[in-house]
Write a structure and sequence with these properties.
The structure is a homodimer of 272-residue chains.
Chain A (H helix, E strand, L loop, with lengths): L1 H9 L4 E6 L5 H12 L3 E6 L19 H11 L3 E3 L3 H4 L6 E5 L7 H4 L3 H16 L3 E5 L3 H13 L5 E5 L19 H7 L1 H14 L5 H13 L4 E10 L12 E10 L2 E10 L1
Parallel strand pairs in A: 1-2, 1-5, 2-3, 5-6
Antiparallel strand pairs in A: 7-8, 8-9
Helix pairs in contact in A: 6-7, 9-10
Chain lengths: 272, 272
């Protein structure tokens, strides 16, 4: 992969990378489109990264479909699919990890203590192997995007990061490989995450600035659903991920909620 | 700096980087020579890296002499001196750190708990800014070299690492900016580190393979010196830095010892 990239770079071609865990859906396809619009060539990596899953999480069961992914990638105009094996990425004796200390234990990080260390580490490895000029991430994984942006800046990585909008199902549910886990009942209830976020948006647009009020209404809406197990609903500064009260500036409203086996996240970004 | 490197690379020039904390002595000059022999252009960075010093350590007092360094660099044929400021390398909000977990708390790391995290982080930043093909480190800082080599491998960095031999004063003391701190009495005693290591080498060459025996003789020789405060004397595997007993394979014999204000380190590498 590095040899391919070196040759492309030597020929002046602009390389985009979209790092993924595979099991492509419309969300991924949208990232590919954004990437292609900003580069000459698109590399997509598929790697279900073991070190970003906790011991009780769904690493083994995470949905995989490499053949289906390959077909979708070809249709989408992906130039290179990079699919390394776990024992090549983390050989015996592997010891190096990247941490973004101020951001990694907030929001999802409070529930997944080693998750973002694993995410930052694999992204840095993929950046070093693929040597892209441009990397594209999705807004759906908002905290991941903030952390990778911070890492790129802090480690002086010479690449541009683009965050592409969340792609949603017709009813508003954010596209996610983990939607696969939902029973039809859970699937029906899961749209509440989007509805609660949009309700919060309207509250704020109508002038509400009290953190507790907005957050309280999000929580109440989600908790009306019998199958929803809310992990968190937070309103934070978009770059520092710190709680903001009263609401002002660039903010992120983020939720994480379990429906049965599926842990779903969603968010909206607002400028007040 | 990155723009300069990009242009050099685009023109096919091979760039070497020697990262330093300045206050050049013969040890640095030897690294520069090795680097120049392996590249078209030599970049030397001077940066006294605050995050690799503990709160009670000598960050503020670390010897600095940028004018003298510049003159020596010019004489030595250094092409670029890169001297960033601390608040540029670590601006407000800085949060990203690299750890080499299996190696960073051994040997010196047991006495300097955040030191190698700071070293790995600044080296990665400098590599990303300067984009060298070749980096050169000194064997005197043996643990640093092992950690940086591991980081390069683990993070898939596309660069070659060369470790150059330790340069010594005529009596055998390893060249170090911190020798500056020694009083003449301490300076006289400090040569015991080299003598003890050479004694250990002879013991092993004459067939001794017992860890405790070899280590015991090193410790005894150093402790004969009234001004020596030994931190550790260890015999470890050269790549894992783990204690090796009985002695075999590629080993590193490493010592750290205080003489007054100066904390000095030295080592020898042996193949048994």
């Amino acid at each position: 992969m590095t040899a391919v990239s070196d040759e492309l770079r030597a020929n002046g071609r602009v390389i985009a990378l979209v790092p993924t865990m595979g099991y492509f859906h419309r969300g991924h396809l949208s990232l590919f489109q954004v990437a292609k619009a900003n580069a000459d060539l698109l590399v997509v990596s598929i790697f279900v990264n073991p070190i970003q899953f906790g011991p009780a999480e769904d690493y083994r069961g995470y949905p995989r479909n490499v053949d289906g992914d390959r077909a979708m990638a070809q249709n989408a105009g992906v130039d290179y699919l990079f699919c390394p094996e776990a024992d090549v990425m983390y050989p015996s004796g592997y010891s190096t990890y990247v941490e973004v200390t101020a951001l990694q234990h907030l929001l999802c990080g409070a529930f997944r203590p080693h998750h973002f260390k694993g995410v930052a580490t694999i992204c840095l490895k993929l950046f070093n192997i693929v040597k892209p000029h441009v990397v594209v991430f999705g807004q759906k994984d908002a905290q991941q995007a903030v952390i990778i942006r911070r890492m790129i800046q802090d480690l002086n990585l010479d690449l541009e990061m683009i965050v592409a909008p969340t792609v949603r199902e017709p009813d508003g549910l954010a596209a996610s490989s983990r939607n696969e886990y939902l029973t039809s009942e859970e699937r029906e209830e899961a749209v509440v995450l989007h509805k609660a976020l949009e309700h919060a948006r309207r509250l704020i647009e109508s002038g509400e600035r009290r953190y507790e009020t907005v957050r309280g209404e999000i929580v109440a809406l989600i908790q009306e659903k019998p199958l929803a197990e809310l992990e968190y609903a937070e309103i934070v500064e978009a770059d520092t991920l710190k709680k903001v009260d009263p609401l002002r500036g660039d903010i992120l409203i983020a939720v994480a909620c379990r429906f049965g086996k599926a842990r779903l996240i969603d968010n909206i970004a607002l400028k007040i």
